[in-house]
Design brief:
- The chain is α/β, with parallel strands linked by helices.
- The protein has ten helices and 15 strands.
- α4 links the parallel β12 and β13.
- It is globular.
Length: about 300
């Protein structure tokens, strides 16, 4: 029987199932990515158009009402007048819900104008970024901190610095972003890794398929970014959708974005989706995608597309 996402009931993130990070932080597998929240249009650019503050706060509160308890953010997610971390703090802090897990990342930096600055590579620079996230979020510790990596050089010193902050109690768990399998092995020799964030989705980085599987075998969550936007990246889903995705969407009475989220979740119980939006209707649809059950025929079609897209 075909399962559709259209229903008379309110969607809830628990329909996506759960995953436990580090043996103690249980999250629903459909979460929320805050990158798109501070602005309208393209993210991570100078002179972005700030999103209306009240509407951004309303989306965050609605996400929690819909069962979202995993939010992905960063101090470098900001536009003129708006900071994702500050919006999260204002909307959900004082106090934060007991089950809410906030994941942030360090490494990249932007100056006040929004221009990219040099990556943090020293222990002092990384600690400063951790403290900036703590201050903006209004917390005395960070649930999960991902080290965002550029290139293939060793991450031992940088990850080791974060491991020391974990030992000091500023960070509960550590993850990695934009990495290779060699990076994961290097980091796991230093401290436990609870998640990997890499670009992945239908037709995006099919060469990561074995890496995704390896993460599951090691009990590491795999958290794809740009799973909906694909090649559109920071600008969103701008390219024409493939006929295969559209066919599956039509069969289920769903949207293409929902199919892409559902495909992500079907790649293994350790995959977590973090779609982002500033639109309440898109938020509800993203959460509802956690209830979409793809058939074996759907998965064969989409997997073939994934492996053959160049």
């Amino acid at each position: 029987m075909t399962t559709t996402t259209s229903s008379t009931t309110t969607p809830h993130a628990s329909a996506s199932g759960t995953w436990t990070l580090g043996g103690e932080l249980t999250v629903n597998r459909v979460g929320f990515g805050a990158m798109r929240l501070p602005q309208r249009g393209a993210a991570l650019v100078e002179n972005a158009v700030p999103r209306d503050r009240d509407s951004a706060i309303a989306v965050l509160r609605r996400a929690v009402e819909l069962g979202v308890n995993h939010i992905d953010t960063a101090a470098f997610y900001f536009s003129p007048l708006r900071s994702a971390n500050e919006l999260i703090n204002s909307a959900l802090g004082g106090p934060y819900p007991d089950d809410l897990v906030i994941t942030t990342k360090v490494g990249p930096g932007r100056d006040p104008s929004g221009a990219w600055s040099e990556h943090a590579r020293t222990p002092a620079a990384l600690r400063a970024q951790v403290e900036e996230n703590l201050r903006q979020l209004g917390r005395d510790h960070l649930d999960v901190v991902n080290l965002r990596v550029l290139g293939t050089d060793s991450i031992a010193e940088r990850f080791g610095a974060l491991a020391e902050l974990r030992e000091a109690g500023l960070i509960r768990h550590l993850g990695l972003s934009n990495i290779t399998p060699a990076h994961l092995a290097e980091a796991r020799a230093i401290a436990p890794v609870v998640c990997v964030q890499n670009m992945y989705g239908i037709g995006v980085r099919p060469e990561y398929e074995d890496f995704v599987r390896l993460c599951g075998e090691q009990g590491v969550a795999f958290v794809p970014f740009y799973a909906i936007a694909a090649a559109g990246r920071e600008t969103g889903a701008t390219a024409p959708e493939s006929p295969e995705v559209l066919a599956v969407a039509e069969a289920h009475g769903a949207s293409a974005a929902q199919v892409r989220i559902a495909w992500t979740l079907h790649q293994g119980p350790h995959l977590l989706a973090i779609p982002g939006t500033g639109d309440p209707a898109h938020l509800a649809a993203n959460v509802d995608a956690g209830a979409l059950r793809l058939t074996p025929e759907d998965l064969t079609l989409l997997n073939d597309l994934h492996r053959t897209t160049t």
